[in-house]
Each structure stands twice: as structure tokens, then as C-alpha cells.
Amino acid sequence: MLDPNAPSAELARILESARRLGIELNEDDALQWLTAMAAGASGGDIVMDTRAGVFGHRVTMLDFSPEELAYFRRVGRLVEFQDEPGLVETALALSGSAAQSKIQTYPGDCDFFERVNIRAADREQCAAIVSRLIRDKALQTEKGDSHQLIEVKFGSFPVDVVRQGKSIKAGSPIGWTPAEIHAGRIEVSAPDGTPVTVTWDQAAHEPGWTKLDWVVADPVRGQLANASNMLDITWEAPDGTITPLDGYLDPYFQEVYLEAGSIPIFSKLAKHVSADALDDYVAQLEKEVNKYLNRDLNYGKAAKRMYNIFRLTGRYEEAAFIRELFDEPATVLYQVWSLIRTLDDALRPDSDIPLETLRRQADRLIAEVERILEGTQEIEIVRRLQRLRDTLGDQAGRLAWTSQAEAARAEVINLVNNFFHAKLTGHAAIRIYIDSLQNA
Length: 440
Known about the structure:
single chain; alpha+beta; two-stranded antiparallel sheet; about 50% helix
């Protein structure tokens, strides 16, 4: 744990690791962050930026920059749910890399998190309100010249099913396409071939993990992004009892709330967060790190989660080191990898996003790769991206597009993995931590 009286000792070790691994490190910024972490350890959990009108956990706020706030609020107007006096209370926040805009120079997606508290006489009325809210939001934002709804996660499959040839276990979240939301039902089959129908209203009774995903085309920045809104839905009974509909009230360790007016609803719900929330949150992050180190290999995603673990558990030296990795030019490839998927999501027959917007995004990806890479790596990835651009709008070439997109993403994520693997394992303490998870 960092000694509040001697952050320079920690900084010296970080500088040595950075120099040895060829990482450019802003010494003043690192010292300022270390000092702030040490000084804040004895302060309150929640802090507010009165000038920007945002608030969040003290650790999270150290990494948030208001420079992109206008952009995030613009996207937020698309994804957010509206309050309904006496019935629905909401609090919209940034999460993920969007909440770390001071250090995530090359963020992946626009991730939002929203607390939605429903005041209802009973669980049945609450389910009806939830059903209406999410269906209306999905259909109202289905498509436009600046956005396209991709999927809504809502409810869970009550039994084992087979969907589009894939086996899905009972209890797995249901992903609804816009067409299925319109229909109000999903048609799948049991493993023995028996037809199974799940209705939207059935899903509303046990909504579980609820999340909406869009592709957005920002006309001001001229950039595509995947935008998501993960909901934490609670039912407030007439006696004031708060019940999370998925059985768990999410903590607030990685959220930046966008409006000061959300403080009352946030404060009311925060009182019900478990005393073990931090330990549970870290344990969940470690499960995800383990997954990205072993099964779904992605050292970039593992690094982002390790950073959050270290900064919340007092391992500030390791956190400060990873913090600097996010500003390295090579990490722009993580954004390239994400944006190839975004282009793939946007290229739908029913999309209203202009084709020229997609082409401009493809040109930006090519320019970013040419700026960062050199030699045979650059030539191969640029070649694949150019092929992607050439197939845009060619419906006959849709299969070729998908094949090229998958190949380009594989090339890019391989470079991302190599970069983060080399830097993370080159730091002795982080290497020991990685080994402990891989050998657990």
C-alpha cells in the first residue's frame, strides 16, 4: 500500500519499470495521481465536480476529464430513460473506458450505466412498467441517420433451448433483435426440437441482466461508436423497501453520473449497496481477468480490469504503471479492433446510417493504422481494411465483408495482445499477479 508521506518512492519504481519497457511516462501526472490517491484514502467516497455538474466515486473521478462531456451527454440523450413523476426515477452514468477519459486516450465503446427505480404497488405492476419502458425505448430508438439499435438483453431463457443452431442453457440472458421486439416474442426450440416461445411480457417478470446496444454516428466528431446502456432496475414498494430485479444492487465504483439532479435517487439507492460490495466487485473483476488471460484471450481487456482492481485495492504502484499504458500509441489498435466490429454492426440492410459515414470511418481506421504501425504489419492490416472499405454497400459482398472483418480483427487483436502481454509481464509485481490467476 502506498505510503501517503512518500509517493516519490513509488514513483521511482514506476519510472524504472517504464524506462526498462520503453514506455513514455508523464512524471508530473503520475506523481499527482499517486499523491491524490494517497490523500483521498481517508476522505469520503463520493465527490462532485461542481463546474462540470458530474459526480462519482473519488477514485473514478481522478480519471475523468470533462473535455468530452458534451459528446457523452449528446449520446446520453439517445440511450437514457426518462423520469416519470411518482413512478420512475433514473440516474444516468458513464462507465467503462468512457468514465476514464483522462487516461483512455483511445477508448473502445461509449458505455453507459443507468439506475432505474420503479415505484409500484407490487411486483406485477413493476414488471408491467419495466416491460413498457424498455420496449418503448427500443422502438423509439430503433434506427435513424445517426443510430441503429443492435440488440436488447432482457429476460432469461426459462429452459434449455436451441437458437439458430446454438445450444443455450436455461437462465442465459435473452438477446432480442428489433424484429423480435416488434413481434413481442422469440421463437426457439427445445433440444428435442419442440417449439418454444418466450414472450416479451414473460421476460419482464425476471428481467435479469438488462442492456441495450446501438451503433451511433456522431455528426460533430464524424465517428462511429458502439453505445450501450446497462440498466440496474429496482422496485421500490409502498413501504420504501428497495428490491433489485436481478437480485443484486450494483456498486458505484466505476461510474460518473452526468447530472447533479441525480444525486437524490443515487443517494437513496446507494444506502442499500452491500457492505461487501467492494470485495464482490473485485472478485467479479478477477473472474473476468482470468477469462481474458485464459479462455477468451484479450490482454487489453485484462489490463483494463487489472487497473480497476489495483486502484481500488491499494496497489497504486501497479495501477499507476498500467495507467500509463493506456496512453501509448500502440493502444490505438484496441480502438481499431473495436471500431471494426462497430462497422460490422452498422452495415445492416435496414440501417439508415448513411453509407458515406461508414466509408469515412473506414478511411479513419486506415489512417490510424498507417500512423501507428510500420513494415509488414502495417501493410497487411491496411490491405485488409482497404478490402473492407471496398465492400461497403455491396450487399452481394456481405459474406466477403464478414470474412475480411473477422480476419482484420484477428490481426489487430494479435498485435494488441502482444503489446499488453509484453508490458504487463515485464513488470515484476504484475507478472506475479497474472501467474497467481493463471495457476489458480
